[in-house]
């Protein structure tokens, strides 16, 4: 029996789950329109309710203005749960598409990375750092092969009013995508998103992530040292030097020297493949 979300929505199948939330399909009873409803258990979040308020505040600030960022449609709460209602993405996570394909063709990877980076630039320009960019938080709007990709999950995001690098020091994120400065606790900001984009690009091109190690300790040490390789050769032989150079650029260990989203977008790998309108093909 479907549960009834306060008055207006009826929830259906589970779409996904993360650290604190279960996301379910929800139908708006009056209009028959489908949404994705993030259900957050207040007990589980005890003491961290501010994280949800932060997620809502950030989404209100940015999501309606960009076609590649999930839109928060509605929000309400009951005694036990908090509910965030989003426009539904029916195409699944980028993570699952990479796993299904094995890896992406370089031109397709460049197209996706350019789109995501433009949305990251939009987020950064609004003074926000996402801090949890990874293929589980990048969703396809529809099931179509060329569906728009959407940045989701602003649960760990922060508003950074000043261009200061040293504001945030807590350790958070998903280890494989976390930048060296997060582990070093030297302060972090927008550059952590660029690092994560480097890891995502590597994953798209090869089908596996660069810092996978036997233990979390070894993984952390590899990240801090920027110790990764474009190996085994068989996974990289069809990848261009320009693509590898782009990955290297984003995986600059020093956050001060790491490119900004704007600089990454200007890299040859993304700038040269930007589709141009052809008048007379
Ligand atoms: P958490 O903070 O717990 O990781 P997310 O916001 O990432 O929560 O949501 C968890 C999962 O639910 C996502 O990885 C995705 O699979 C699914 N999901 C989230 N938002 C949507 C949406 N708008 N449409 C479809 N599925 C979604
Ligand atoms: Mg998530």
How does the SSE layout of this entry go?
Layout lengths: L3 E2 L3 E9 L3 E8 L5 E8 L7 H14 L9 E6 L3 E7 L6 H8 L4 H20 L2 E2 L8 E3 L8 E3 L6 E2 L20 H5 L6 H16 L9 H10 L7 H4 L4 H10 L10 H5 L2 H4 L10
Antiparallel strand pairs: 1-2, 2-3, 3-4, 4-6, 5-6, 7-10, 8-9
Helix pairs in contact: 3-5, 5-8
Structure explained in plain terms:
ATP binds at residue 38. Keywords: ATP-binding, Kinase, Nucleotide-binding, Serine/threonine-protein kinase, Transferase. Residues 9-270 form the Protein kinase domain. Belongs to the protein kinase superfamily. A six-stranded antiparallel beta sheet has the order 1-2-3-4-6-5, with helices on one face. A two-stranded antiparallel ribbon has the order 7-10. It is built from ten helices and ten strands. The protein is an alpha+beta fold. The protein starts with a strand and ends in a 10-residue tail after the last helix. Strand 3 and strand 4 (34-41) form a beta hairpin. Adenosine-5'-diphosphate binds at residues 15-21, 23, 36, 38, 70, 86, 88-89, 93, 136-137, 139, 152-153, 155.
């Amino acid at each position: 029996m479907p549960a009834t979300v306060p008055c207006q929505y009826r929830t259906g199948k589970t779409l996904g789950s993360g650290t604190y939330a279960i996301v379910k399909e929800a139908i708006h009873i009056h209009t028959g329109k489908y949404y994705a409803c993030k259900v957050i258990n207040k007990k589980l979040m005890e003491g961290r309710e501010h994280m949800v308020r932060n997620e809502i505040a950030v989404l209100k600030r940015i999501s309606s203005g960009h076609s590649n960022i999930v839109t928060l449609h509605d929000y309400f709460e009951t005694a036990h749960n908090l509910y965030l209602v989003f426009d539904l993405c029916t195409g699944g996570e980028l993570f699952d598409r990479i796993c299904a394909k094995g890896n992406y063709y370089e031109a397709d990877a460049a197209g996706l990375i350019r789109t995501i980076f433009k949305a990251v630039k939009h987020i950064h320009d609004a003074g926000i750092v996402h801090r949890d960019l990874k293929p589980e938080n990048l969703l396809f709007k529809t099931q179509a092969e060329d569906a728009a990709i959407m940045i989701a999950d602003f649960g760990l995001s922060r508003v950074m009013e000043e261009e200061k690098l040293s504001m945030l020091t807590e350790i958070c994120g998903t280890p494989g995508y976390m930048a060296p400065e997060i582990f070093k606790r030297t302060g972090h900001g927008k550059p952590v998103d660029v690092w994560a984009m480097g890891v995502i690009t590597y994953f798209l091109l090869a089908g596996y992530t660069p810092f996978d190690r036997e233990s979390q300790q070894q993984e952390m040490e590899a990240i801090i040292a920027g110790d990764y390789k474009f190996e085994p050769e068989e996974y990289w032989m069809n990848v261009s030097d320009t693509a590898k150079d782009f990955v290297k650029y984003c995986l600059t260990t020093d956050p001060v020297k790491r490119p900004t989203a704007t600089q990454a977008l200007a890299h040859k790998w993304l700038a040269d493949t930007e589709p141009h309108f052809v008048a007379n093909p």
